[in-house]
UniProtKB/TrEMBL annotation:
<dbReference type="InterPro" id="IPR008984">
    <property type="entry name" value="SMAD_FHA_dom_sf"/>
</dbReference>
<dbReference type="GO" id="GO:0043123">
    <property type="term" value="P:positive regulation of canonical NF-kappaB signal transduction"/>
</dbReference>
<feature type="compositionally biased region" description="Polar residues">
    <location>
        <begin position="173"/>
        <end position="186"/>
    </location>
</feature>
<feature type="region of interest" description="Disordered">
    <location>
        <begin position="146"/>
        <end position="206"/>
    </location>
</feature>
<feature type="domain" description="FHA">
    <location>
        <begin position="37"/>
        <end position="107"/>
    </location>
</feature>
<dbReference type="Pfam" id="PF00498">
    <property type="entry name" value="FHA"/>
</dbReference>
<dbReference type="InterPro" id="IPR033621">
    <property type="entry name" value="TIFA"/>
</dbReference>
<dbReference type="InterPro" id="IPR000253">
    <property type="entry name" value="FHA_dom"/>
</dbReference>
<protein>
    <submittedName>
        <fullName>TRAF-interacting protein with FHA domain-containing protein B</fullName>
    </submittedName>
</protein>
Length: 206
């Protein structure tokens, strides 16, 4: 019996809006339960072409909590260059933090929102990537820059609660909403393909 994958709906924004920054990103990526690397290196699964980004800047790491049957995720900072900001918390080199259902992340000018929708498969998960022309996070901290040490901290954006109306400005029509339930299906040409099915959620991310 096929088991649906956990889906990470990942929205990305960078103020420069340079298409080359996101040129190597696939719309959809199936990944096993090893860490998913984010950076500018060729070995990064989410590759961003930014000069201040480390080759391996951070990772999204799935794990199984004791007594639980669904994958959970944490985010780990892998760069010495600057900080990674996650849900109001600043991570230094090799620090990590567990992720909740909706997560606001910022690093090297990149704004990222990760929405986790759990599935029962423990062998792999699926990432759906979308680019936003509008900012995803407001009231950013000064410490998100590479020169963050010694800079007075501002109040971070709220870690929970409703976002402002029109918060996510996606490139597709926001009225076309869908929540994903993914599973492996045989493809006509042999091998397997991912099929995503579902019903409308509150906000389209994937």
């Amino acid at each position: 019996m096929e088991r649906p994958f956990t889906v990470l709906q990942v929205s990305l924004h960078h103020p420069r809006l340079d298409p080359a920054t996101f040129a190597n990103i696939q719309p959809q990526l199936q990944h096993d339960t090893s860490p998913l690397l984010v950076g500018r290196g060729r070995d990064a699964h989410l590759q961003l072409q930014l000069p201040h980004l480390s080759r391996q800047h951070l990772s999204l790491e799935p794990y199984l909590e004791t007594g639980r049957t669904l994958l959970a995720f944490c985010l780990k900072a892998l760069s010495r260059k600057g900080c990674v900001w996650v849900n109001g918390q600043t991570l230094r080199y090799l620090e990590q933090v567990p992720l909740s259902t909706i997560n606001r992340i910022s690093f090297s000018g990149v704004q990222m929102v990760v929405h986790i929708k759990g599935g029962t498969s423990l062998e792999a998960f699926v990432c759906c990537f979308h680019l936003s022309p509008s900012p995803l996070i407001y009231r950013l901290e000064a410490e998100e820059t590479d020169e963050w040490e010694g800079i007075p901290q501002e109040q971070p954006p709220p870690a929970s609660g409703e976002q402002p109306a029109g918060h996510l400005g996606f490139l597709h029509d926001s009225s076309q909403t869908q929540t994903w339930n993914s599973s492996l299906q045989p493809s006509p040409g042999g091998g397997t393909e991912i099929q995503l099915q579902g019903e409308p959620p509150d906000r389209a991310l994937c």
